[in-house]
Amino acid sequence: MAYFEQPQRILLPVNIGYMAFTVVLALLFNLMPWHDLAGVPDMVALVLVFWCVHQPRKMGIGIAWFVGLVMDAGDGSLLGQHAFAYAFLAFGAITLHRRILWFSLWQQAAHVLVLLLASQTLMLAVRMVAGAVFPGLMYFAGSLTAAALWPIATFLLLLPQRRPESVDENRPL
Predict the structure, then answer these.
(1) pTM of the model
(2) Distance between CA atoms of 33 and 16, rounded to whole angstroms?
(3) What is the mean pLDDT of each run of 10 residues along the chain (173 residues)?
């Protein structure tokens, strides 16, 4: 079924406090001790991509840079590595947000996968320039997991913006 054949719901305006809450939750998830395991998604990157795609005027490169610096400080990694990658990620998501929203959720996930892989590649390049060794291809497994979580993240993050079904059913065409 093509995108234009799917019924579209009118969403309520997003609450800035909710956006901040989701970013803080993602930061807390990333700072948990399991972040070094293979396949664990970078939830901050996923949430940043989501808000940059769905609310590009409210979530931007500056916020992504700041969140990246917080992630760098909390993670104990090279200062600026996450900030640079998240700013690039936000730029890519904002640039492509209209194109991404045109597709189905799984096709959106493919676009998000490319953005997340590019972001991870930038982080890896910064680490390697600083003298780290290549961690292997399993380093990129988190991006695959995050892209697979895109439909679930979309449903959950848009949940507070959805109107009740009765309001959508009774609106005039």
Answers:
(1) 0.86
(2) 29
(3) 53 86 95 83 96 93 95 85 95 94 93 96 92 90 95 91 62 54
